[in-house]
Design a protein that fits this description.
This protein is an alpha+beta fold. It is built from 2 helices and 3 strands; from the N terminus they run βαβαβ. Helices cover 30% and strands 28% of the residues.
Length: 61
């Protein structure tokens, strides 16, 4: 299965609480912090909701 690397690129200050919780649920803690997740519809939906705060790239195995 494919994997994606998600990196937080913007601060959460001043953004909706719901979006803050989504970023935290993805496992991101601060700017430039990255996590790797399996590529599935649930993760894609979370990334889509906060797409203006994060950067996504595909990871080769």
């Amino acid at each position: 299965m494919a994997r994606i690397k998600i990196t937080q690129k913007k601060s959460l200050i001043g953004h909706k609480d719901r979006h803050r919780k989504t970023v935290r649920a993805l496992g991101l803690r601060k700017i430039n912090h990255s996590v790797v997740h399996e590529d599935n519809p649930v993760i894609r939906g979370m990334v889509h909701q906060v797409r203006y705060l994060v950067e996504v790239e595909e990871v080769k195995k």
